[in-house]
Structure formats: C-alpha cells, structure tokens
Amino acid sequence: MTASINDVAQAVGVSASTVSRALRGRPGVSDEVRDRIAAVAAQLGYTASRSASSLASGRTYTIGVLVPYVGRWFFGTVLDAAEKVFSTAGYDVLLYNLGSPETRKRFFTKLPVRKRVDAVLSLLIPDEEESAALRSLGVPLATTVGGTRPGFTVVGIDDRAGTESAVRHLVNLGHRRIGMISGASGPLHWTTPIERRNAYLDVLADAGIEHDPALEADGDYTVEGGERAMTELLAASRPPTAVFAQSDEMAMGALRALRRHRLKAPEDVSVVGFDDHELADVVGLTTVAQPVAEQGAEAARLLLRQLDEPDAESPGQVQMPIRLVLRETTAPPRPRGPQ
Q1: pLDDT tens-place string over residues 321-336
Q2: Segment 130-133 long-range contacts (CB within 8 Å, at least 24 positions apart)
Q3: 174 phi and psi, to 5 degrees?
C-alpha cells in the first residue's frame, strides 16, 4: 500500500501541511524538522503528488514567461537564469514567444495564461492596455525590461547612465565624430533604444559636439544588422572615428564590417558596445557590462518571494549595477584632419 502524506505527518508528529511545505522547500519549517520529514518520507516511500499539491494549495506550480525573441542572446540568457531558479523551487515554465504583432495581439486578447500560472515574468514591455490585462490575472508580475510600471516588480539597469559612460569615454579619448548603431523600438514598445539614443545625444550636446544624423544607423540588435549599419556609417561623406553600438552583438557586427573594409579597431575606428556579451572579451570589445543572467535570476526570486509571502510589500524596482569595461577596441583618434 502506498504511503500518504498523512502517514508521513503522523510518523513525524506534525501536520500534513508542514510535511507539504518541507518537501517543497517552502519556508516556515526548521532544518531539523525538514530533515526528519525527508528521512521518514524516504523510509515510507512517499512521493509528493504535484496534482494533489496543486489542489490543496490552489497553485499550478507553473510560471508564465513572455518573450519577444527566444533566439536573441539577451533574452535567452535572462530566460535560462530565471528557469533555473523556478526549477529549483519546484516550478515549471510555460513559455510564450510573442515576437510578431499578430501573436502578441492574439495572446493579450485571449490571455491563455489565466488560471494556468501562479505568476508571470514578462521579458517584453506591455503597453497600458496589455499591462491592465496582465494585472487582471491577479498574480505576481515581474519584468527585466523597461522602467517603473504599476503592478510590476522591475529588475533592470540604468540605460542612460550606461550609455553616458560609453559615449563620454569616446569623448574623453578625443573623438568628435562619434556615430551610433541602434535599433528601432517598433511594435514591441521596447524603450531601451530610445533611452540609449537620448543619452547619446545628451553627451554630445554636453561636449559641444553637433549631432550629425548621418552618423546614426539601425542595426536591429543583431550581428548582421550591426555589420550593415557600420558599412552605412563608413560610406558617409565624413565617416565616424568612433562608434557606440547599443548592444555587443551589433558591435561585433561593426567589427566584422571594419575587417571586410580592411580597417581596424581602434586604429581606424574605435568601437564600444553594451552588455558584456560572453564573447566580448574574446574579441577585445570595450563595453558597458550589465549582469544579464543575474537580472533573470533576481526577477525569478522576487516572484517566488511574492508567492510565498503574499502580504509582503513588493520592491517595485530593483536596479542592478553596471560598469564600463575597457578593452582593446577604443583609443584616441589618429590625426587625419578635422575630426
């Protein structure tokens, strides 16, 4: 005969709810009692039933995760780190890839996560109507992109400060023709490109550098896009001596474009990126480092904390540290006439 949770509880001398909390790693159980429960459960051959636990607690033990690009490095890294935290805590992940406007509209119209998840981690920025739809689910919400949003716990970075440090670095090296490779926000309501562009323009203005629209190009936040954008910048009547790329992937594409034009960084053009991609050190890229995986893990931990302590106050916004990492792709401009 299969042992039940009540058999374990009776053998240890605790309640069935205490056994449930202990075996699921939930707080409120001392280490000594947890160890005793685990030992007795193993001795009796008791295994917790996910469906029974769900019925008893009203939980699904599933977290909904919304992503705009599953294949992009940033989102994949955040997702991987968050999933590890959820899995360790006994939760499954229900993933929704909302990369197209049609898929996104269908999701927010039908809200298929309703009554299927205990919380939602959104790696995309919902507009006001979409935010209201997510809040109507009545579950904890968190995101790793965008600024403060009512009802959401936001784990992110200061995009403006990061960009300012990168562009000021180029200004301090003596560059006056500073280009930028960015990406449009498009229908995904992504504010990062806007924040970073505004910071770029502000640093140029503070340095007394007149903005030249010909020194901006769209790199679509991909390596291929970065290569196309750098090729476009090099074709300008007065090409840049330095380029700030809003992501390391675009910066790597820019470096590839320089090689194909028989140019070098930093001898011909300095390049600085943003992210500290896992390959940034390999190519010697100067960049703004942000803790990408840590943002995903922290957002996951905060969601689980809200589930375990529903009466606790939400942290609202958590800002992770950033820093400028100097490598080999930036240097003062070579004298070659007006810069």
Answers
A1: 999 999 999 999 987 6
A2: 133/108
A3: 110, 5
Report the C-alpha gap between 210 and 320 in whole angstroms: 32
Q: Does the pTM exceed 0.90?
A: no
CB 90 within 8 A of CB 25: yes
Q: What is the CA radius of gyration of the chain?
A: 25
Question: Quick one: which of 277, 286, 63, 290 has its CA closest to 173?
Answer: 286
Here the contacts of 214-218 (C-beta below 8 Å, separation 24 or greater) are 214/238, 215/177, 215/178, 215/179, 215/180, 215/240, 216/179, 216/180, 216/181, 216/182, 217/179, 217/180, 217/181, 217/182, 218/181, 218/182, 218/183, 218/184
Pairing relationship of beta strands 270-275 and 178-182 according to DSSP bridges: unpaired
The Cα–Cα gap between 96 and 104 comes to 9
- Rounded to whole angstroms, what are the CA distances from 214 to 100, 181, 264, 273? 30, 11, 21, 19
Q: Which amino acid is at 287?
A: T
